[in-house]
Amino acid sequence: MKTSPMSLDDPNFTTSSIEEMTNFQLARWASLVEAVNIIAEKAEEKSLKFKRISLKQPALRKYIESTCDIICRKMDEEDHIKEIRRLCNVRGSNSNTISSSI
Q1: pTM tops 0.85, yes or no
Q2: Domain membership flag for residue 3
Q3: pLDDT means per 10 residues in the chain (102 residues)?
Q4: How many folded domains does the chain comprise?
């Protein structure tokens, strides 16, 4: 069964701000942007107008599926590293406060 693209007028269509998205959702969008950028670069190299290129949905979907997990893992690692740094900074600032008050 072939589904039609969702319209902005469709009551089931919702938008999310970046802050509301999960890392997985952000990774999927980042994968799509990356795919389109790669296609645009290749078109530019061959002096083709981007408008004339037919974007093939199955190929884009395959690219997104193959890169989404990698991007998501990188984002999770970065979030983990940021949290560790935040905790270290909090502990570091607390210890400075304690040592300066002694």
Answers
A1: no
A2: no
A3: 52 70 88 90 87 85 92 88 83 47 39
A4: 1
